[in-house]
Amino acid sequence: MTEIQRLLTETIESLNTREKRDNKPRFSISFIRKHPGLFIGMYVAFLPPWQ
């Protein structure tokens, strides 16, 4: 199991380096423009429930 985990971790790290990803969340206006319904659904799900 540890060998599989090591291989997966190596692969993910190399992909992240190659694609210049840093695992930080980004706010994207283009996402809202392309998928307004999905954005609203995600925003509503993020809000705390009414009390």
UniProtKB/TrEMBL annotation:
Enumerate the Pfam families for this protein: YlaC (PF10777)
Tell me which InterPro entries the record gives.
Memb_YlaC
Name-wise, this protein is: Inner membrane protein
Organism of derivation: Escherichia coli
- Gene encoding this polypeptide? ylaC_1
